[in-house]
Amino acid sequence: MNTVQRIDPDEAKTRLDSGEGYVYIDVRTEEEYRGGHIPSAVNIPFFVANPQGPGMLANPEFLSEVEGKFPQDSKLIVGCQRGGRSLKACQFLISRDYTNVVDMRGGYDGELDPAGNLTFPGWARRGLPTTKD
I want to staple 22 with a disulfide (CB 3.0 to 4.6 A). Which of 28, 37, 63, 75 is the partner? Predict the structure, then answer.
């Protein structure tokens, strides 16, 4: 599998503001997205609630939703809440021939250690712009 390029939230903001056509895909759930997100983000959840019970399942519509909005050469920055789901989503998109995909390390909130301590601040904790619209 190809290695995923990871960038920090500051670099993601620089790219989004560059006018070079970068798009941010937020792969969190719709509920997480509504709680606050990056302005102009496109919400396409990578995992969805399991209709059969607890837990999450891969979103069976993820690829078709991405393909319906973005050609394979689109400049995509992918992010989630803490960085785990977006890394998996990037690996998936690269395996489906997307050629310009980067993962935003730390996601919207930030990476935590096993004790719940912040180890790498995400977008919102860095004071970068957020919205709920």
Answer: 75
Q: With respect to residue 73, please indicate whether it lies within any of the assigned structural domains.
A: yes
Higher pLDDT, 49 or 35: 35
80 labelled catalytic: yes
pTM: 0.94
Annotated catalytic residue within 4, 12, 41, 80: 80
36: left (phi over 0), alpha (psi -120 to 50) or beta: left
- The CATH number of the domain holding residue 105 is 3.40.250.10
- What local confidence, expressed as pLDDT, does residue 2 receive? 59
Three-state DSSP at 98 gives: coil
User: How many distinct structural domains can be found in the chain?
Assistant: 1
